[in-house]
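Lesson 9: reading folded outputs for more than one chain in a single document. The general rule is that every protein is listed as its sequence immediately followed by its structure tokens, and records are never interleaved. Here is the first one.
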Amino acid sequence: MVCDAAMKTFLCTLLIAFILVPAGVVPGQSGGRALQSLIEAERAFSKLSEEKGIKEAFLFYLADDSIVFRPRPVPGRKAYEAAPDESPVLLTWEPAYAEVAPDGDLGYTTGPYQFKDKSKPVDPARYGHYVSLWQKQPGGLWKVVLDVGIRHPQPGFRPVEVMTWKESRPKRLVKVDKLAELNNLLRVEADFSAKAAAEGILAAYTAFAQDDIRFYRDGSPPETGMEAVRQATSQSLGKSTWEPMDGDVSRWGTLGFIFGTAATRSGGATDAATASTSYLRIWRKTPDGQWKIALDLAVPIPPE
């Protein structure tokens, strides 16, 4: 979409925001208490970062076993414990979309962030979008179990309200064996990888992604829908392979995530990788019990 130069920036950005809202997404206020508490936790996280600094905020909200991408997946608390106590960087963000599993123990939020160096006031801010996965702790508090972001050159619109998925539960909801269900999801990940190897990456996304998939790639604002995936994958060169590192699923096995690293090779499987990335996939179970990709994110790993 091209915005006329005479249009107000706010109106243009707001119009783009409405165009990008996919079917099946509704205002977050229609969600239950678990969703509202997650949104409040994310906003409090950003406020603490603004008031007390990045290190204190992340060490307060990161779970003990959390993961952050640097750009490879690494233990989150260890990464921030090693950060300097004083930093001139101001990092703030705002959730634009949030989703919680029906059982209320696992959820995620995503939205725009701004990164500003206060010691260099004349330098422009840097922008991007974050994704934070949250898990409810035994005491009832939300803690971040995975945090990652992509960078892009334009500021994200300030959300008027947080959107969420119009809940469509599987037909039968029962508490699952989480380890067994995670292994099941890892098998689905393997099937996705096999489909990509045999028929191409677009065929894999067509078979395994939901129509409203959120697609995040470094350097560009996030996009929604299979058309965005088609455009992105049409430019991909070589074949990709994925190496899952870990993940988790909700108590009823309706929402889950897998993260790891990926390599793209122009030739065979034994050739040197031409590109490496860290990836995150958030999976949502459909009413008929199939795992489908709700969000797919990749950030580049620089050559060593």
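And here is the second record, again sequence then tokens.
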Amino acid sequence: MKKTIIFFMLFFSLVSSKIIFSQTFLEELKRLNKEAQETSDRLEERDRYDEYMYRLRLAQKLKEQAAIQEVKKEINETKETTVSKILSYNIFSNYLIENKLNDIVTDYKNTCERILNTYGEKKIYDISESRDKIYSYSMEVMRDKIFQYLTNEQLEKDKLDKFITTNILSAKQIERIKIKYNEFLSDPFKTDSDGNFIGYTFDLNEVISKMPSSATAFAITSDGYLVTNYHVIENSDSIIVKGINGDFNKECLAEMVIVDKNNDLAIIKIKDNSFRKIDRIPYTINVNTSDVGENIFVLGYPLTNSMGKEVKVTNGIISSKTGFQGDITLYQISAPIQPGNSGAPLFDSKGNLIGIINAKHRSAENVSYAIKSIYLINLIGSLDKSPTLPAKNTLKAKSLPELVKKLEKFVYIIEVR
């Protein structure tokens, strides 16, 4: 009985221990499973984090690359715009200016490359610094005095072009008024002693003085020989005479016969098919030198665009037997003259031709100059066949108004084209 009880006690003790062991094992197993799950979760979280960081770094890198490309685009646009601006200054179609601008472009591009090499272009900070430096340098280049100079020259060229397009000019007239401009194109970057560009300046007064819209001529024979100044017809394509026999609406074509460049004289002859003859010339050419103080008068057609086509008379005296700077070929006279009086006849109080108007003193009032008539006679004498000049003066003892009425029909408007 006692042994049975002990056996049962041992049996229950063993069973109880196994039960307890089983429970503990299950609990430990649960714990280990839990830890394994937690470890797995942590590993997955870390993997997700690593993936996230990888993607983040990749996105940042792509974003920086995109930003770098955008900055590079800005740099290229700045360079292209600057180069285009530089080259746009060759509005003169001149190879010297073109070469100069190309040299500036080359220097500009090389400097931009040096800036990129200095500051780099692989990082956004570096490429941004390069961009700012290149932009500042581009602005500096365009502020160079050469571009202000070329801008001013363009304005002067525009003035010249406008004058040419708004006036009826012959090819030779255009060639003449473009002489200084062409000189500028032959050496556009010529400088003075101070290093300043000389350039070209459009001078309207100078152009007008060289290219008179009209001047004056007068007859020396009835068959159409006329006298004017050489500078009036110089480089003309055609010579038009108005006022023959009082008709200012009719244009008669004339041609150059002979010139004296040194004394600014020209003899022309009417060659128009409709021309017949001029009335008998009532005055003679006086080759004797007139005295200082002698009364004189001038007939001419100054400023016809504003003053009209009626002959204008101005009078005065012989102020000196010599002209500008003591020139013995000229008289100095006090009769006022204006543009358009060039080539006008100078008469004495008896109606004798004593000179030909050719200039005025710009810096003095009522100081004008006339070529002495002896030089006209010399020019006529150099012709192969001298025209028959009037031998008798029929105007003596007439008043100034009477002289003007008789003489005006032999004084004409001359236009060069």
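What the second record shows: The CA atoms of residues 259 and 266 lie 4 Å apart.
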